[in-house]
Amino acid sequence: MYYNHQQCPICHETHFENFISCTDFTVSSEIFSIVRCSQCQFLFTDPRPSNEQLGSYYASEEYISHTNKGNNLINIIYRMARNFTLQSKIKLINSLTQERNLLDYGCGTGDFLAASAKKRWETHGVEPDEKARSYAITENKQHVSQNINDISPDKQFDIITLWHVLEHVSELNGTLKKLIQHLKPKGKLLIAVPNPNAFDAYYYKEHWAAYDVPRHLYHFSTQSMENLLKIHGLTIINKLPMKLDSYYVSLLSEKYKSGKKHHRIAQYFNALRTGYLSNKKAKSTSEYSSLIYIITI
User: What angle separates helix 243-258 from helix 73-96, to the nearest 10 degrees?
Assistant: First the structure.
């Protein structure tokens, strides 16, 4: 069963136009459409699987955001990059507040929480996936809830992070409202998402791995993010690049685009070249493959 949007989640326009059709290269090999709102230009996957069906599209060892398994080269590179970026994320949150109370929404296996706890942060996570949540609790020794509704209504945090999570959240506006309720008046909300205006997105088109249909329900340009946050009384105070993402996304995109037609060495070379060009072009456009938005009430 599939869900069709009756209106744009941001501006409530009812007319959409086809933007691009992409294959689910990870799980089902199904083709999904991404549409563009004719009013505000927001991109979203439509139709998409129902909430009851969505879980089945994560059921693959190749989908490694929720697991530490997967031993092909791309997955190994992903884990190396993730470990490298953990410290930069911690350095970022340390620079934003003197307080040390953190909520990581969509925390996966809890690696970021565990690394933050070692730096004396008081940590809490939310993770709906049972396997990932269990790993975060048992292996990383973190306090993780299944749902944000399980957190006490009067509990507030200095920093709330969503690292490549918001694009997966089916109840977009409802989730943001709940997160705001848990954010202290001077707190910061950090949202990292892929950017469909990046050079690597234009280069790979329907093979761009960061479209990741149907798991990615929404595809945020900077303008779309600003429009969404404005509805909720939120303001972007800074925007930071995630430069490693262009290389990792290009590696996956080359795999999807070329398949077995080209030697893997050629795929790796092309991916490194495209990732480099994407970051180079973004120096003047600010359209990096992924962006971190630092947000206040």
Answer: 160
